Amino acid sequence: MSFLGGMHHETSKIKAVAEEDVEMLMIPLEKASEWVKEYPEWTDFIFKLYHKRFEELLGVVNAVAFQKLDSRLLQLLQQKSKLYNSKEISITHQQLADEVGTTREAVSRVLKQMENVGLIKLGRNKLFLL
Question: What is d(CA 80, CA 32) in angstroms, rounded to the nearest whole number?
């Protein structure tokens, strides 16, 4: 999306948050536009990225529309646990709410229910998967 916005001289509407150290490659807009015209492999790469992101978007829409908040939250926590290779996850209720697209209050209520049934243990700005 940032690439397409740049080609049309528009501000990107995408926000990314790095959860671990990353390496980033910045390509000047002029070069990226030039490569689309000169290198079919580059164009194919861009289309494959769009396809992948669109599939991810459909997954998110499906989850929001058809999964209950508790299962979405548990799935997110399990993904983060696997990513960090730890059962301890440092995150705020607001950050979780932002990631699943709901309010902090709803997340806090569901997390407390999850703690009551023994799925997690809550701490200050962190939680533990049990």
Answer: 33
